[in-house]
Structures
1.
Amino acid sequence: MALLIQSEEAVTDQRPPVSETLSTVSSPMVSSSPVIERVYRHRLPVRISHWLNVPFLIILIMSGLQIFNAHPALYWGDRSDRDQAVLSIRPMQTESGEEMGITTILGHKFDTTGVLGYSDGMRRAFPAWATIPSAKWLAMGRQWHLFFAWLFVINGLIFTAYAFASRHATRDLAPTGKDFRGIGKSLRDHLLLRHPSGKEAKRYNVLQKLAYACILFGVAPLIVLTGLAMSPTIDTAFPWLLTILGGRQAARTIHFVACFSFVGFIVIHVVQVILTGFFNNIRSMVTGWFLVQHKGVRHEV
Amino acid sequence: MKSERAMERRRFLKGTLGAASLVALSGCDNLTQSSWFPSILGKAERLTEAVQRGITPKNALAKEYGEADISKIFPANGNTDPGTEQYAGHVAQNFSGWMLEVVGLVHTPRSWSLAALKELPSRTQITRHDCVEGWSAIGKWTGIPVGDLMRQVEPLPNARYAVFHCADVDDGGIAYYESIAVVDCYHPQTILAYELNGASLDVPHGAPLRLRFERQLGYKQAKYVMKIELVESLAGIGGGKGGYWEDQGYEWYAGI
């Protein structure tokens, strides 16, 4: 039988009243059966900001791919010399007249027919199911992208201010020295799909901290800065931006790489959410409350 | 029992995710087709303009490059030849009869022949052209600062926009035009260029005169300019949005 107890070690000092009557036990106990502890894991501003980012990022990524499709090649430096592309996704025609999609990365050609370059009978870099709007429509893709870019930036600024003011960033996200010493073990555990339980599950593990911190304070600001660096007006106001990024086309390339870092992060994040207890994870991101199972250990309240 | 539940969960998850993405996708397309949603999206343009104008010094110059940075091939986009009989006549005469008119809300409307314009003090700038599609090319442009022309015609206080009327028409017979704010006409890098990379502008790049408005995207750089009209409102000109591309849904403020 599982028992539920209220945590003293919740990540927050702000503890909403517990409404479930059947779940709260308030006396110390000794038990050999699993003990389930409720932890208030995510505070409201973090939850709101997190869920807003779900539609924002999906829309930004898909409308961004629409914009990319207007010139499906990437370069380094300030110019886009067509023979100097580091990546291109182009439709081609074989001698027999068959349509193909060819993706070229640093001179290496890959046949990506059906997905990239040529899909569903259309000559387009990213397929219709991956772009907003689904039809080829640069003007509308830009409208979506630039509108939601503002919302993403405003949400990000509010989150960042909150994360530092509430010490969420330093307390929960910044890895400690001890964390770094345990990185090898954590890496092995992740690869073997062994997930922390008990007390260890109450805090973010080191790889989790690094992933969140890199995305929040590395990739997210970078994608905003590289987006701004593609603006000729912003380049006039802040000429150093292109100097540090390596040129306007380099900024566009970094923007694209940062976008796919987000895609990679989202895929791994969602897989981990499913593997480590989908409903528990979703509940904690919706209500804040996370259940931690202690296997047959003595637990004092 | 347990595996059955897990399978059920998996099925539930897959179904939910699949349905959600389908709904989201067709939802986005429905919103795009609606009459009200794009007008909300369009509000971002006003915010972008206000913020960018607020943080960018009025006369800050777009970066100017060196000769070594010039693109070997400067792509010509959009219309590459107006294709009208009248324009072909001008090409045949090497644009000797080409006139630039400045009219509308000005104190003294004026017109100049191409030769007369070339007599005026010129400015040469090696700048980067950023196309809305994503590519960039660097070219050396020589032309007359639009501000100098403005000082000669003296805009009236209610003149807000300078509309550039062009010689080209699209396949549907719609005349190309573009507009910028009158204040932006006085920016030192806003020029009517007649040379690219030291040679007279060729037809694909907008001969004999094209606008260079360096702090905004490529589609603002009107080619084949015949007339500048100063107006108070853009309504009633073309589709009313301030330019050929703007009438197709592109932002009038093309700072990003």
2.
Amino acid sequence: MASKAILGEEINKETESLYKKEKKLGEGTYAVVYLGHHIRTNRKVAIKKIKLGNMRSGLDMSAIREVKALRELRHPNVIELIDVFSHKTNLNLVLEFLDTDLENVIKDKSLVFMPADIKSWMMMALRGLDHCHKCWLLHRDLKPNNFLIASDGQLKLADFGLAREFGDVKRAMTSQTVTRWYRAPELLLGATNYTGSIDIWAMGCIFAELSLRAPYLPGASDLEQLTTILRARGTPTEDEWPGMMKLPTGYNFEKFPKPQFSDLFRGSSEDAVDLMNKMLTFNPVQRLSAADALQHPYFRNLPRPTAPAKLPRPRQTVVDEEEEAAADANRKRQFQEAFDDALSATDADRRQAVEPVAKKMDLRISSPA
Amino acid sequence: MTRLSLRNPLLTPEQIVQSPSQRQGMSQTLELDLRAYGCHLVEAAGIVLRVPQVVMASAQVLFQRFYYLASFQDYPLRGTVLGALFLACKVEESPKSIRSIINVVDIIIKRDRGYPEIVTDGYDAEYYDLKNEMVIGEMQILRRLGFNVQVELPYGLLVNYLRCLELTEHPLIPQLSWNYLNDLLRTPVYVCFQPETIACGVIYLAARKCGVSLPASPPWWIVFDANEEDIKQVARAAVALHERSRLRIMPLDSDELEMYLQGSLDDHINAIRHTRSESMASTI
């Protein structure tokens, strides 16, 4: 089985014919996502189309990173890359279809979270993250809306556009990573060498956010983020975080006292606050690893984590009108695409490309001068 | 599942027998020379750009893979070299700017051809053409390879195997076999065999050169998932490469390819070298 991978483009057409695109779901920085299904099994999939055609300075690094990372990972709590195929000048990633994300769940105020629900989400998230770290990959962009939720309630880590391998001490990595509110203090101080501990900090923030139902450390700017952290967590002493001052932008910070965490997290049990504190330890060396976090008593104590299928989910907000409008926009876009393709082709090709679409849409096109 | 395998994709027997370039009428010798020259450019540029060795090696493998899916006639050499380097730098997390890759490759070509070594101006049409070639080259590689741009290399395996065979202290074998790995990047070996076989092949050859005998019953390579026939093929490819001489002037785009086939490329290059040197002399 191992050496069966064959080099070839032929495989593309074969793969492409397995799937059918249905409608557009959304648009990202470098890709458009469509809903589709596997023709034979009828399995729902998300097809992420990466545009290569009109890229002036080559392919976006994040697209490369994403494919690279997802090829390596395979875990129930990590989004599955099912297939890859290219079509003309587009690259298509076939991903598992997941209908909502953790951010939607947190924001839906009609949902009530039980402590057991939070435990279940944290457990799934940490398992997925542990798998990444065991494969020597850093996610580097953990936040609630990158945790997608499958129809059976499983939480899945997604969006590996910033992921990269780690472990090579000699190679510097950028400290400008992770969405600000979830960025670890060592990154804010300009560290260029870090480990999985930056992902754990983000997980700690998400843990707190699940309990508070609001972002825990919402800094308004990069500079203010650090102050926000220090105010919320208390300024670390030299003993707590030796070497802090040696980081590129370390300086003498205002001394904030350590607050009483149990006051803020009233709804959380003692073991939950303990785990959260260990995940939000200032010293990255002492911060818990994903594997250690999963061994924490919090996960063994009662209440038991809720079964994924029984977790709260946001109400499906499928409005027919909306879908109709989306379908309409989709048809228009298809025409536009065919038209764009035709612009770069010869006259004969052009007519051939545009006519069938135009006919289908009952549009009349003037013959090219 | 096999489609998303992390193993290196290999050629099918049909793909090995006739490459796209040969199908379009190119001789096998010319194709091998073009492959070797392209890899030379990638390697030389990588050294000047100070990228890690994995980048150079991956870029060469991407380059080799590409020309089993597309022909030199349709996709000229220079664009693919630029694109492969650009892409490999990104895949291996050592991104380089478009500008520096173009400058370096451009200067190496000029040096090989004996042109005056002047850096192309960033606003020059020549620079824009090169940049275009590079972006298109990258896109074509991605498209043809169906985004299968990961390359598994045998360097790490080689070190492990040498350790197992207690050869790490030998004065010649480690360096010699490492060098063979580098040289083999210029041959189709990396698209025909998995890294284990390649690592065994170079150890086999290096040990023979140095007159060191390795365990024969059972043969040592069995432990490393290789078979005798394959490793001998790898060794043969390395020997064959050493018997070829390196060419400095190879056609880089379709116009030059045509001239090369008509036998007028050398004259053309000489003429350019002459005029460029003269115009440089007059500006000084």
